[in-house]
């Protein structure tokens, strides 16, 4: 064959030409067969890939640069509530109007940066609310331009619920379900920083139950736990929704009263708690009389830091106990040359 190719046209015999034509045809057929084989292999791979994605439990989809669906698996169709065969050509934003702006912005970011983008989104509400993690990745063409965006989402609701449960256990009292010392301190720190910036006033109440030890000693810790739960409910019912009632430890509680400066209003709320705690508790016969002693510290009059406020409210509470219990005292901070610090002045008594 090489010898025939190297000969000039005038040197070729008819048989030689026939041999070259047959050889060329054989080469064309071989190339065609190779292309067909390659195409069939590509088709097989694509069919396998599509089959794998279609059966994936995770929503998986492909959209063009205009945000219109090119491919979507069954999980995506189930999530969007549209049959899979009807999804191609539909804009994702039209199916998810509440996330329209976010979707457009995210797709534009992937196209501009040519990088993957991760995030979280919620679907549904109430008991039907689900959390999804998603990843958008650019699909590049031969010239290096983004021709499509591939998306995959994963339902992480169980993980998020587990994380929320762990966080709740770490930040809420297991007995009363009130914020614990850790969460209380975080909220007090945040409120103090907020008030430093805005000048918003607030007050801190430190509450200790009177005669609680007698309940534990006479009736046992189970009854004491029931009393603490009932006392917590009464305190919650005596303040506003925006206020924080927390259990520090044992029979010690705190209340953060937001956006309140008028001492008369603070006194009224504190006295309401005193009145509720003085009512009989439903614990059976022989329950000792329980009441509450409350100390008050106001920001910024009685302290400019969380530590100062907590210390001064605690001191005012101990003054209430020392002077007969079942009453409210307010810490009065004055100039050192006028009056000794750490003085608690009575506001009301019951």
TrEMBL record:
<dbReference type="GO" id="GO:0016301">
    <property type="term" value="F:kinase activity"/>
</dbReference>
<dbReference type="InterPro" id="IPR013656">
    <property type="entry name" value="PAS_4"/>
</dbReference>
<keyword id="KW-0418">Kinase</keyword>
<dbReference type="Pfam" id="PF08448">
    <property type="entry name" value="PAS_4"/>
</dbReference>
<dbReference type="InterPro" id="IPR052155">
    <property type="entry name" value="Biofilm_reg_signaling"/>
</dbReference>
<keyword id="KW-0808">Transferase</keyword>
<feature type="domain" description="PAS">
    <location>
        <begin position="45"/>
        <end position="114"/>
    </location>
</feature>
<dbReference type="InterPro" id="IPR035965">
    <property type="entry name" value="PAS-like_dom_sf"/>
</dbReference>
<feature type="domain" description="GGDEF">
    <location>
        <begin position="200"/>
        <end position="333"/>
    </location>
</feature>
<dbReference type="InterPro" id="IPR000700">
    <property type="entry name" value="PAS-assoc_C"/>
</dbReference>
<feature type="domain" description="PAC">
    <location>
        <begin position="115"/>
        <end position="168"/>
    </location>
</feature>
<dbReference type="InterPro" id="IPR000160">
    <property type="entry name" value="GGDEF_dom"/>
</dbReference>
<dbReference type="InterPro" id="IPR043128">
    <property type="entry name" value="Rev_trsase/Diguanyl_cyclase"/>
</dbReference>
<dbReference type="InterPro" id="IPR029787">
    <property type="entry name" value="Nucleotide_cyclase"/>
</dbReference>
<dbReference type="Pfam" id="PF00990">
    <property type="entry name" value="GGDEF"/>
</dbReference>
<protein>
    <submittedName>
        <fullName>GGDEF domain-containing protein</fullName>
    </submittedName>
</protein>
<dbReference type="InterPro" id="IPR000014">
    <property type="entry name" value="PAS"/>
</dbReference>
């Amino acid at each position: 064959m090489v010898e025939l190719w190297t000969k000039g046209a005038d040197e070729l015999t008819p048989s030689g030409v026939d041999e070259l034509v047959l050889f060329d045809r054989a080469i064309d057929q071989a190339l065609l067969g190779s292309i067909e084989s390659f195409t069939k292999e590509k088709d097989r791979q694509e069919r396998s890939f599509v089959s794998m994605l279609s059966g994936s439990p995770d929503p998986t989809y492909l959209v063009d640069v205009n945000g219109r669906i090119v491919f979507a698996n069954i999980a995506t169709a189930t999530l969007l509530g549209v049959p899979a065969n009807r999804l191609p050509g539909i804009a994702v934003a039209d199916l998810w109007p509440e996330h329209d702006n976010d979707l457009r912005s995210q797709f534009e970011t992937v196209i501009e940066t040519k990088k993957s983008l991760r995030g979280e989104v919620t679907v549904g509400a109430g008991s039907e609310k689900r959390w999804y993690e998603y990843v958008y990745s650019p699909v590049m063409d031969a010239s290096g331009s983004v021709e499509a965006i591939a998306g995959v989402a994963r339902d992480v609701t169980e993980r998020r619920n587990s994380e929320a449960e762990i966080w709740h256990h770490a930040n809420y009292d297991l007995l009363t379900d009130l914020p614990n010392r850790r969460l209380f301190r975080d909220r007090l720190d945040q409120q103090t920083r907020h008030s430093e910036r805005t000048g918003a006033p607030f007050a801190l109440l430190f509450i200790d139950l009177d005669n609680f030890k007698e309940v534990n000693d006479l009736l046992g810790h189970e009854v004491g736990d029931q009393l603490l739960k009932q006392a917590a409910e009464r305190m919650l019912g005596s303040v506003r929704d925006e206020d924080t009632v927390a259990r520090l430890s044992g029979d010690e509680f705190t209340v953060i009263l937001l956006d309140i400066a008028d001492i008369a209003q603070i006194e009224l709320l504190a006295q309401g708690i005193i009145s509720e705690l003085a009512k009989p508790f439903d614990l059976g016969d022989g329950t000792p009389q329980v009441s509450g002693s409350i100390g008050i510290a106001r920001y910024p009059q009685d302290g400019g830091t969380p530590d100062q406020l907590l210390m001064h409210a605690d001191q005012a509470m101990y003054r209430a106990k020392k002077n007969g219990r079942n009453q409210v005292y307010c810490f009065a901070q004055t100039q050192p040359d006028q009056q000794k610090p750490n003085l608690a002045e009575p506001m009301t008594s019951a």
